[in-house]
Write a structure and sequence with these properties.
Layout (H helix, E strand, L loop, with lengths): L2 H13 L7 H8 L1 H28 L6 H9 L1 H38 L3 H17 L9 H19 L18 H10 L5 H8 L6 H27 L8 H8 L3 H31 L4 H17 L5 H31 L9 H21 L1
Length: about 375
Amino acid sequence: MTAFWKALTVFVSTIIGVGIFGLPWVAFKSGFFVLFGYFLILGAVAIFVHLILGEIVVGTKAERRFPGYVKQYLGKRWGTVSFIAMCAGLFGAQLAYLVVGGSFLANILTPYLGGSVLIYVLVFFILGSLLIYRDIKSICLTDFLILILFLGILAFFVVKSLPHINPVNFLQTNFKYIFLPYGVIVFSLWGSAILPEVKEILGKRKKDLRKVIISGILISAFVYLIFVMAILGASGTATSENAISGFGLVIGGNIAKIGFIFGLLTCFSSYLSLGLTLKKIFWYDIKMPEKTSWAVASFVPIAMFLLGAREFINIIGFTGALAGGVEGFTLIFLYRSFLKKKKASQKMNPLYFLLAIFFILGMIAEISHFFRG
């Protein structure tokens, strides 16, 4: 496999995550064409934002994560803000994986063992935390194999859904939920955290980073839309928050069990990856002791769950809009400072600041929707 394809695989595997399971529900509540319109706009925004960050990553010799770039070019205060936003985003994603992964585990084992969803969330948490503590991820499938497996199961779902698809399911629109897709789609299309690693994979062909970003986001958006069309088209009013439960009721057979098992593997693998990332952030960047770093990375998400944060769509929507919004807003000013220091002859187009306003409005809309219910 060439460096380009390896980089593309890692990038797409990072983007396509737990957010995919919430998209059919969002489309059901707001309307498929509302969701499609959001994908057109936010897909373009995501590409643009990732290209800007990609230029900064390639143009900076030192290896850093987003808060490190912000601290270098904007100063310590901005760096602290971006660090908090990044950690909030990672904790939010971890919480989402706990909620959905625990739900999938419950759907698999409850028919045989009984018990509440809470028990299975705790089992998911304990197993994940132990592996994060031991710094083990090698037992999980590689990104490439997971992506291939996912695409295979997606194709299987599409084929199974075809006899059940009703075009009417795509035509309904509810403007009460017009802002619902924003945060969920931002969450689902965001892969900025992996760009430094993608740059390293490309080696001397760093100029290919632009192609990886554009191709990766377009592929991810296409996969999302195909998944939504299969699930929503077949499930209709039976569409569930985790996508699989309602789809299984309509299609029948073992389709739900297959979906739950795959969803569990995907969630658990990603939970370990993010958990290890958080552990290393607190360990290496904040200089906490290793065990303390593990405790913070592991116990904050489960504490949030036990305190009542259990609504999957609200979690990923709120996380996407706020964490992604703060990062996107900060990135505009980061890029301006980067150009001043690295490319003095190149001036940033003032229209870029409209994008900063866009992210602020997105955060306001998401907060408004969240409290309005």
